[in-house]
Amino acid sequence: MRILLTGRTGQVGSALERTLAPLGDVVSLDRAGLDLFDLKSIGKAIEKEKPEVIVNAAAYTAVDRAETEREAAFAVNAAAVGVLAEAAKKLDALLVHFSTDYVFDGNKPAPYLESDAPNPLNVYGQSKLEGERAVTASGCRHLIFRTSWVYGPRGRNFLLSILAAAREKPELRVVDDQRGAPTSSQAIARAVAFVLSNLSSGKVPGGVYHLSAAGQTTWHGFAREILERKGLEVPLVPISSAEFAAAARRPRNSMLDNANISGTFGITLPDWREDLAAVLSAIH
Known about the structure:
- The chain is an alpha/beta fold.
- Helix content is 40%, strand content 17%.
- The chain contains 10 helices and 12 strands.
- The protein is globular, with a radius of gyration of 18 Å.
- 45% of the residues are buried.
C-alpha cells in the first residue's frame, strides 16, 4: 500500500508516521514538502506520488487566532482539503481526513452523533466543517474522523501548556464549564492504522466517524489529573468560560458518540485517563 501523509511534524501526523509505517510505503510530507497554502502545488504533488491512500493530518489549529486569521484558516482547512479531495478522486485514492467536535455548538445535552446538525461557534469550526463538505462534494472515497480535545507529547496542546504554566505561574485558572473527552494523538494514530489495515479485505465503509477517548471531564478536571500525575502542587482554580474570555467561543458539550466506529470497525478507544498516563510517560 502506498500512503501519502501530510502534516508529518504535527502532533497527529508525527504519531501517524509511526503507526502507518508497517502498512506499506509511506511518503511523509511536512509543510516544506507540501504547502497547503499553495493550492496549485497540491495536485502536482499527489500526481507525482500516486498514492493509494492520502492521510491528511495537516491543519490550521490555532482556534483563537483563527478569529482574526479567517482567510488562513479557510485556506488550509477548507480550500486545500477540497483540492486534496479532487486529487484523490482523480486517482481513485482513499482520503483520510480529520475534523473536530467544534463543528457542533455544544447545546445538545447528550453526546453528538454523526447525523446531528453541525452549527460551529467559531471560525476554526466553520473552516473544518467546510473542509468536511468539500470532501463529501468531491465524490472521492473518504473517511472523515471527528475527534476532540487532541493532545500529545509534542506540538501545541493543552497538556503541554498546563505543564509549562505549572512551572512558571503561582496559580492556574482553568475553565470548568466545558465538557469533553481528551483524546491522545497516539490513540488516534493507532485507530486509523487499524482501519487502514483492513483495506485489503475491503472492509472500509466510507463516511464520517466520531473518534474520541472514552469517559469525559472538563478542562479543569483534565488539568487536575495532569498535575496530580506529575506530582505538581500548584493551586488550580475553576473558572467559567466567561471569566476566561477567549477570542473564540467553545461548545459547552464536546462529547462525541463513538458507537458508529465501534460497531463498524470494532474500535473503542481507552478511557482518557489511561492514555494520559501513557503520554505523560513519554514526556521527559
